[in-house]
Amino acid sequence: MSKSSPTLPGVTHHHADLNGTRLHYVSAGTKGSPILLVHGWPETWWAFRHLIPLLAASHRVYAVDLRGFGASGKNADADYSQAAFSEDLHQLVGHLGVGPLHVLCQDISGGLTFDFAVQHPEDVKSFTGVETALIGFGLEALADVNNGGAWHVGFLGAPGIPQLLLPGHERDLITWAYRVMGATAKGVTPADLEEFVKAYTGPDAWNGTSGLYQAVFSDKGRTKALASAHPLRVPVLAVNAPGLQQVAASEVRTVPIEGVGHLVAQEAPRELADALLAFMGDVDQAR
């Protein structure tokens, strides 16, 4: 079962039955080139609540709840592999009928969004990665707790463990995550935190998270081989994501945003919007 979702002025909510699951997404804006926003963890589409209005004045904006997250389907018997997440995005673009589009990913969604971009280049006009890394290009180091890695990567990636141990403790983990991941508190209000806690509470609410983090340990060189054979060939914007240069055979524009933590879209939406609008404008003009 999916949950209701918070909303914003000018934002419309939709559901689509695609690739064996029910995806929830929102749309805003009526003109300009389209952009798809893909959230990370512990987030939903609500992570882009400040960014969407800034982009929708000049672009058609779509933000999705990945399968297993937010108001999208969370069935326990669904496929939560990286390939399934990637195919969801491809089918969503086809459903929207707006490709090719600019795509932005944040945090742990970098791998599935990269997979989507290189497997379906006809869908993608540009690729923006925000505070993200790929398996084989730095992300696996985050799981190495003996050398500065984060304990939660292995915990969330252990099959069945999040679903077994986190019900009843959702608020504890989400509150901890926002405290340690953010350098500033200005972007996430208590009401926002409540929305994220609600989104991760209930039956099967951890299935999407578990699938994303399991990919860190089950990849077995797949992403590295994919990057070698099919590097990104569209313009790339790397926002606090230096590793993206290793997976692109195209122009990579790097933009550092200082004084923020890990959740850039929530903490520095204006700075991110300015960088993204300038980048997309250059890509659209060149095309």
Poorly predicted ranges: none
- Assign the CATH superfamily: Alpha/Beta hydrolase fold, catalytic domain
Q: Tell me what portion of residues adopts beta-strand conformation.
A: 15-25%
Structural class: alpha/beta
Between the first and last Cα atoms, what is the distance in angstroms? 42 Å
How would you spell out the order of helices and strands? EEEHEHEHEHHHHHHEEHH
CATH architecture heading:
3-Layer(aba) Sandwich
CATH topology: Rossmann fold
Number of strands: 8
Shape: globular
Number of helices: 11
Q: Taking all residues together, what is the mean pLDDT?
A: 94
Helix content: 25-40%
Largest sheet: 8 strands, mixed
**CATH C-level label:** Alpha Beta
Order of neighbouring strands in the sheet with most strands: 1-2-4-3-5-6-7-8
Number of domains: 1
Radius of gyration: 17 Å
Which descriptors apply to this entry?
287 residues; alpha/beta; Rossmann fold; 8-stranded mixed β-sheet; 8 strands; globular
Question: What would you note in describing this structure?
Answer:
This protein is 37% helix and 16% strand. α1 links the parallel β3 and β4 (60-65). It is α/β, with parallel strands linked by helices and 287 residues long. The chain has helices at 51-56, 82-96, 110-119, 151-157, 161-165, 170-181, 190-199, 207-218, 222-229, 264-267, 269-286; strands at residues 12-18, 21-28, 34-38, 60-65, 101-106, 124-130, 236-239, 252-255. The chain has an eight-stranded mixed β-sheet, sandwiched between helices. The radius of gyration is 17 Å and the shape is globular. α4 (151-157) crosses α8. It has one domain (12-286): Rossmann fold, CATH 3.40.50.1820.
